[in-house]
């Protein structure tokens, strides 16, 4: 159990959707979050994320700024376009979104499209968990 604003809530019922083009890193982030009590699912492309978001609303979206359809194929949407799409969907508009990136320009763009937080990479596991805890909405 974690506590937020004086209330206990079960974070295991709160799935975090992770979008990272490197399968190993997406799985690593998911494992770190699971070790801290979160349920996490990892996908590798914005197309997979869009499909998942269209079926079920997660507790949070954690997306890498390089996450594109099939990484080398620009035929679906960029991470920033996916966030813009999320913000336009009535049922997803309030979804907390954390952008992961290694460029200062990505931080500015993530704010512009409506991300709740930006995590500069590389980061350590404690920083990842701290950002997720800060942005998580019970």
Chart the SSEs and their pairings:
Blueprint: E1 2-4, E2 7-9, E3 15-19, H1 23-35, E4 39-43, H2 46-55, E5 60-64, H3 79-88, E6 97-101, H4 104-113, E7 117-120, H5 125-135
Parallel strand pairs: 3-4, 3-5, 5-6, 6-7
Antiparallel strand pairs: 1-2
Mean pLDDT metric:
85
Helix/strand-derived category reads alpha/beta
Supply the CATH class: Alpha Beta
Radius of gyration: 14 Å
Number of separate structural domains: 1
Strand order of the largest sheet: 4-3-5-6-7
Strand content: 15-25%
Number of DSSP-assigned strands: 7
Enumerate the spans where pLDDT stays under 50 for 5 or more consecutive residues: 1-12
Report, as a whole number of angstroms, the end-to-end distance. Answer: 12 Å
Write down the overall geometry.
Answer: globular
Helical run tally: 5
The helical percent reads 25-40%
Commentary on this structure:
- This protein is an alpha/beta fold and 138 residues long.
- It has a single domain, classed as Response regulator (Rossmann fold).
- The protein is 39% helix and 22% strand.
- The chain is built from five helices and seven strands.
- It has helices at residues 23-35, 46-55, 79-88, 104-113, 125-135; strands spanning 2-4, 7-9, 15-19, 39-43, 60-64, 97-101, 117-120.
- A five-stranded parallel beta sheet has the order 4-3-5-6-7, sandwiched between helices. Strands 1-2 form a two-stranded antiparallel sheet.
- The protein is globular, with a radius of gyration of 14 Å.
- The termini are close together.
- Residues 1-12 have low confidence and may be disordered.
